[in-house]
Amino acid sequence: MSTSFNLDEAVIFAENPEPRCPCVLLLDVSGSMSGPPITALNEGLKAFQEDLNRDDLARKRVEIAIVTFDDRVQVVQDFVTADGFEAPTLETGGMTYMGAAVHTGLDLVRDRKVQYRANGVAYYRPWVFMITDGAPTDEPGTMEKASARIREEEDKKGIAFFSVGVEGADMERLQTVAVRSPLKLKGLSFQEMFLWLSASMQQVSQSRPDEQVALPSPAGWGEV
Amino acid sequence: MPWTVIGQSVIGTGHERRSQPCQDAWAWKAINGDHLCVAVADGAGSASHSEVGARTTVATAVEKVAQIITERAEGHSPPHNDSMTSELEQWRLPLTQVIEKVQKELKLTAQQKEISLRDLACTLLIMLWTPQGIVALQVGDGAIIGRDHDGQMVALTQPQQGEYANQTLFVVEDRAMDQAQFVHWPLTGDRHLSHIALFSDGLQRLALELPSGKPFSPFFDPLFSFLDQVNDAVSDAADPKGILNDGAHTLEDFLRSPRVTARTDDDLTLVLLTPTIDLSKPPTKNRSME
Question: Are B168 and A209 in contact (CB < 8 Å)?
């Protein structure tokens, strides 16, 4: 009798939005990144796009936004789910307005959370992932204010802020920018770094009720 | 008054991929012929032994509830027919004792295994059907829902989440009872519940309209029709156990179907129950399903 009942066909699912896992990339496109570094970064972004899209759940859940910074801060990509993300080809310019970029990135996260709540979308703790090969050249005070904001957000678990220094980055200065220790990129292994970021985002976007997610080791591309 | 109870915990495809065990568990017990207790627990993702925590939690919860009800029936405990206290409040102390007993068992298990209590973290949902009404207690996410005789859905509890999708409340926490959802639905009023479902968070987005948490009838109606079919077959069968086993298999096939696993890779638990005798009609015969 019960085998005659086809639950698979009969049961209809509620249409709820997938929970979202936001990730903001803050990318240094100052003059010193020109040549092989920017080429490697662009290839890394493509690998990020492709790898996230191999995972059925991650492609619907991970949301990417990209902010670039040199003399100006640009939102190159506002939040988009991975299945709609097309890796941009970035070009390099002048100075390193890192502090302003951090403010823009944190603003994007803050506004996105408001949108999630207004639309009843569940979400995971946002990641902000900054890559630089220099040191901030903002107006005095801007970087300090940005760092204070990062600390405040980290304290209340509002975001997780990661920073990566490319060859030439002032690692000591970077140490003071965020709460978590910066990682030093090995050579130009952007590809490996973005594959790690993709794997981490897949883990987070599918994590079950709990706070700690065991992230893969960054040993393939970074060192402390 | 017996019930027909069908439930399954199945491992999520995400856990299979990562070679993790199923961290959901459920248990049930009919007590004294007029009480039914069902418990569901969902082990925390990164807690290393949460499958043990979930199994210990549901077994302990159901046994403690049974002990309390049996002692009351035998007159060892004060009767709970004090008309000054609401039905809900009369259950607060006993259910606090249940949570404390669960926490004590988990602490013992942690000591024996030389792990931290946190490694056993899990949620807990308890449904207790009494002659007066239905008591629901929930620590964490998942939900307990019901359907009344008119086919209207009722959310007895709702998922409890923190700011983030991967945060919730666990039974190992000191604040578990204080922050638990705790409700009583009277069976004496005009809105008799005829069907109940308990489920873990893996089914939340398929079974509820979020963020309101309203149960989604097109999800539950076919499941309850299926439960009614099993219920009818059980009442006339020479082998009710075999029919209940078939029913459990049908439920398992559904929970493992590609349509479900494409939407969620989490462990899934779904328990469906209905009284064997229709409460809206005078009882005709006694049935037992145990």
Answer: yes
